[in-house]
Amino acid sequence: MSGWLRRRTYLRTNDRKPHYDVVIIGGGGHGLATAYYLATRFGITNVAVIERSYIGSGGTGRNTTILRANYKTPSTIKFFKASFDLYAGLAQELDYNMLRSERGLFWLAHSELQLQNQIERALQNQTFGVDTVYLSPSEIQRICPQLDMSGGGSRPIMGAAYHPPGSTIRHDAVVWGYASQAQRRGVHIHQGVSVIGVRVEHGRCVGVDTTAGHIGAGAVVSAVGGYVTLVADMVGLELPIITHPLQAFVTESYKPALDPIVASADLHLYVSQSARGEFLIGAEIDPYSSYSTRSTFPFLSSAAGRALDLFPFLAKLKILRQWTGVCDMTPDYSPLMGVTPVESFYLSSGWGTWGFKAIPASGVAMAELVATGKVPALIEAFALDRFEKDRAVSERASAGTH
Amino acid sequence: MPAIDFEGRSLPIQAGDTVASALYRSGVRIMSRSFKYHRPRGLYCVSGDCAHCLLTVDGEPAVRSCVTPATDGQRVARAQAWPSPDRDVLGAIWWMRALLPVGFYYKLFAKPRWVWPLAERYIRRVAGIGPVDITARPTRIERVNHHPDVVIAGGGVAGLSAAIHAAGRGESVLLADEGAIGEQVAPGPTRSAIDQLLATARAERRVTILERTRVVGVYDGPLVIAAADDAVHWIHPRRIVIATGAVEQHAVFPGNDLPGVWLGRGAARMAGVHGLTPGATAVVVAATTEAIAHLETVRRAGTVIRTVVAPAAIAAQLPPGTPVAVDGVVVEARGGRRLRAVVVESAAGRTIVPCDALVVSLGFVPRDGLLRQASVAIVNGAGDVVEPGCSVERAAASGEAAAERPQSAPVTAVPGVGAPPTGGIVCTCEDVTAKELAAAWDEGYRWTELLKRYTTVTMGPCQGLLCHAHLRAFVLSRSPSGPMGAPTTARPPARGLTMEEAAAGTDHAIEQRTVLHDRHLDRGARMDWAGTWKRAAVYGDPLAEYWAVRRGVSVMDVGTLGKYRVCGPDATEFLDRLYPIDVRTIRPGRSRYGLLLNEAGHIFDDGMVAAFDANDYFVSATSSGADAAEAWMRDWAETWRLRVHIVNQTTALGAINLAGPSSRGLLGRLTTDPIDGESLPFGGLRRIVVAGVPCIAIRVGFTGELSFELHHPRSQGVALWDALLHAGADLGILPHGLETLKLLRLEKGHILVGQDTDFDTTPAKIGLESLVRMRKPYFVGRSALERLATRPPQRRLVPLKFAGAQAPDEGAQLMDGDRHVGYLTSSRYSPVLECGVALGWVATNGAGAPTRVVAVSRGQRRDAGEIVAGPFYDPQSVKLRA
């Protein structure tokens, strides 16, 4: 707890070197975590992270900061549980408080189909050591009396999967914590530099061309979110990914009125209140594909309406701002991680709507992959070639919200 | 005498009062306590821009009281502070701020692990600008659509001039202003111009003026949103003019946020509009010509001017005898809970001027949130928002020009960047000081966006209107080039929009009902959602419903099924390409069950394909998948350019399934048409008249019993339903709901698409290879299935049996010893088989699945089960074919 008054430099400006052992494209949580674990766990410090804007400006800085492990396939439950556990001790490891807050997370069902879905979620989570229980309407009401159990009169709440460890964390702090500690170990971060080409010679990736010139690399990792299809194009790789916008909004800051995080599978919506007092509301991806981060009013209107069905007391609260991120959606809603047909070009991608939760585990796994050349068991299931092998990891039942 | 209730005190109000002016008149000086340091805050901008005067009004938290009209009986309160906002003990935080450096919560509570959860509890309690009333409920707010040629945001000189000009060209105009036009402008040349223009605009029939209506967003489309108390306006214009004016530049120096420090226009408004002095004695900073008028307004209201701090050019225009500090600078404001003195530096030296008001007019910052949000090229700015501080004449000309340009690039002012702040509070919403910005920069957060996110500068209720320019000035002073000083993104909404206003007019709960809906309710049915439909789940006694189907006769409302007439010269060709079954061999008068596959060979819907005649079909789809199925059919019909009509009959036709061993006997009582096993065999289709209602009867088999699906004109559904129930009374007829159907079909081993299937389910994975004719040269999904045939499935959907009087949960996890092998998608106790029956996904590892598993249900209940060959009930379908 000591030392908070000490002046310290957290982020540095680095001079570019002509060649690095590893170049990571994308200075979001995934890229920075990969760099950090390369340096700390594998002693590879000659690493550069290249970010076209400022660090954390993409999906990491736009997501709604929910941590959970209550996924729906054995592979994803194991992976996200590993990530959740790493997050739990991350503030101490990085000596950077991330305002992590365990709130408990509801996944409400308003229909028979979703009820069954949530029971299955609870039972499967328990099988893999994740704390999720099924709750009846009266149990839900006891823990969260603010909920309108009639769902605005038309969508009565029939039950829920409740995940007590469900947490929130400050997204920017995750970025800055990783960036700061990676830099202390020698990693370079270049902000405001765009990658405009990826160089491949004899089937092997040898570096990147950027707006600041060529940078050679022993290995290149794409940790790009939202626009990964454009980066994959640079090496002639066609990914099974479609990009969709995902919107969210936040109210002004109010006194504490809601502890748990509440998501509804049928209404495709979730609500939480941050430590600062803002209510954070998100919903499903936009139904059309686009790279645009323009916000729309029909989204705001519809999501606000659904939020009032769950929490009528939000009626008079003021909306402070809305924003939009873009998500790389795979056919099965699970990530694409690992090796590619291009030697020494690695992918951490397809994070859809829940990349933020994956940052620590993805960072460790990608670092191990790049350092050892072997695909870690934790991410084997997420290989790029799984679709042609008919081994999809179906997370679609989780209905792409957060 | 009209009065408001302020924290239990009754305060009188006068005509034209805002909530803030009423409070101020009664001596309230501290309007709120600040977000972080709990510093006292008084009135400052008096234009609805800053967050100093946010109050709870009639239960609505964080209301901008300086622009909210006071009304008799209003309940007004400040946010809680202990013991009161006037004397808040947490104000001491300011004096401990050295212990709370910028981003302290990131640094202070990292270790040990238990510290932060404790600290968080406290921080959550003290954060937040207003209390939330948990019992609040939404009020109904109307949504109104408008389609004017021109929409104008702002009813000042520029906005009104634009409106009059556009109307003069014959265009329809909608002008919205967040207040009553002119009411907040102190008497003077600007006010006179507004009054005159307003009278002209009101006389124009093409101009619609919406007052007390805030324009909150300019979206792509274009769609402009404006909110008033009782309605939210969705405006779809051809062109947009933004004339939202400017706010006076927020002054940053030590003590700049003390109660008693005013922006010039704010002080002038209090004096000129409400007749209230900003203080007994004042120092005035006058760097704009407009400030000279403010000086007079304030003086006339009774304030004694101690000193005017002004550049030489302005000083020369001041009335003779005015005490002036030429080219001076205010370097500090002093005081505790309110302003006591101002420190002025000038060529004459440093003087401390005792006073209780400081009125600051330094320049103008455009209120340009809407302009910066807009991406459409049909938006023009007009007046102060593009030429901050412009004259009345310029504003009028600019408004006319903005109305004139039919298509032009957006006109946006490049916000001027002044000197970087060195001391004082930069962001009063979030309590970010100039020192904190500098400290954050030194820690490495060297980008406007990083500083914003780290210090939270610009992130409060004013969304950076007052402080964004200072943030940029700060960054550009340290990093003059490069992307680091780029403006932050302006995000909607630009002005406070409540949740209920945003939600106005949303009809997200579309509920579809069949014509028999009331009949179900009369029988006490529990209705459940199925997609957008409401369907009867159960009528009371599920077991009685079940036995009625299995041993007697029963009816079910299946009017929700997707129903399509598909005909035309290429209808057979079309359906044969669409379905993996052999459509060509369906003879007229017969039907066949088919799966719908996507290109990947994955099942996404199922239904019947029934042939009336050559190239004339009746096709059904699932209740919740019907819309997708129809879109799918139409897409392919277009793609293949086949001559085919697809007629949606889902709501035109009702459907009742008559099921049970006695169903034929009952039907015979109501029809003279042949319905025997020869004339209408299993799978058959026939037009018959039942109780006077023309029906398409199809012999289907979802329940596993002899059944007749009767499709009929919706208008006659109730008559048919009543006739069947009446005629079957002596047979013990009962209707059955979805719950019973789920059990019946499970006993028969039928899948429910969506419940038993996943997104990547192929026919082979669920044992329905027989429904795929790979011999056909083409059908949608064929090439994918061909390729997948070389890949043994990793898992299969299999039937399972469980002993005991209770079936495992749907969703139960399947274990083979310690190994997790799958889960159940459907599970019910079968009364007729006296055991649990289920469908579940089981891992095959490419070869055989385990034959025995244990299902783990809620409460750690474990049931041993075995994988069997289906179907469970009537495996030879003898009953079905009766």
Q: Unreliable runs of chain A, pLDDT <50, ≥5 residues?
A: none
As an assembly, this protein is heterodimer
- The coarse silhouette of chain A is globular
By DSSP (H or I, 4+ residues per run), the number of helices of chain A equals 10
Main sheet record of chain B:
6 strands, mixed
Strand order of the largest sheet of chain B: 39-40-41-38-32-42
Fraction of residues in helix of chain B: 10-25%
The CATH homologous superfamily of the largest domain in chain B is termed FAD/NAD(P)-binding domain
CATH architecture descriptor of the largest domain in chain A? 3-Layer(bba) Sandwich
The secondary-structure class of chain A comes to alpha+beta
Count of all domains of chain A: 2
Strand content of chain B: 25-35%
User: How is the CATH topology of the largest domain in chain B named?
Assistant: FAD/NAD(P)-binding domain
* Strand count of chain A: 19
Radius of gyration of chain B, in angstroms, nearest whole number = 38 Å
Q: Low-confidence spans of chain B: pLDDT under 50, at least 5 residues?
A: 407-415
Overall 3D form of chain B: elongated
Strand content of chain A: 25-35%
Query: What is the CATH-assigned architecture of the largest domain in chain B?
Result: 3-Layer(bba) Sandwich
CATH topology grouping of the largest domain in chain A: FAD/NAD(P)-binding domain
Classified by CATH, the class of the largest domain in chain A is: Alpha Beta
Characteristics:
heterodimer, A: 402 residues, alpha+beta, FAD/NAD(P)-binding domain, D-Amino Acid Oxidase, Chain A, domain 2, eight-stranded mixed sheet, 10 helices, globular, B: 882 residues, Ubiquitin-like (UB roll), 7 domains, six-stranded antiparallel β-barrel, 22 helices, 28% strand, elongated
Provide structural commentary.
The complex is a heterodimer of chains A (402) and B (882). Chain A is α+β, with helices and mostly antiparallel strands and 402 residues long. Chain A has helices at 29-42, 59-62, 74-88, 90-94, 112-127, 137-143, 171-184, 228-234, 297-310, 355-372, and strands at residues 19-25, 47-50, 66-67, 101-102, 105-109, 133-135, 159-163, 167-168, 188-190, 195-201, 204-210, 213-222, 242-253, 261-264, 269-273, 278-285, 318-329, 336-339, 345-349. Chain A has 2 domains: 19-70 and 171-239 and 332-398, 3-Layer(bba) Sandwich (FAD/NAD(P)-binding domain); 105-164 and 242-329, 2-Layer Sandwich (D-Amino Acid Oxidase, Chain A, domain 2), CATH 3.30.9. The longest helix of chain A is centred in the last third of the chain and has 18 residues, at 355-372. Chain B has 22 helices and 48 strands. Chain B has 7 domains: 3-105, Ubiquitin-like (UB roll) (Roll), CATH 3.10.20; 142-247 and 365-404, 3-Layer(bba) Sandwich (FAD/NAD(P)-binding domain); 250-362, FAD/NAD(P)-binding domain (3-Layer(bba) Sandwich); 425-491, Arc Repressor Mutant, subunit A, CATH 1.10.10; 512-560 and 651-747, Probable tRNA modification gtpase trme, domain 1 (Gyrase A, domain 2); 562-649, 2-Layer Sandwich (Alpha-Beta Plaits); 791-867, Aminomethyltransferase beta-barrel domains (Elongation Factor Tu (Ef-tu), domain 3). The N and C termini of chain B lie far apart (87 Å). At the A-B interface, helix 4, strand 4, helix 5, helix 7 and strand 13 of A face strand 6, helix 2, helix 3, helix 11 and helix 12 of B.
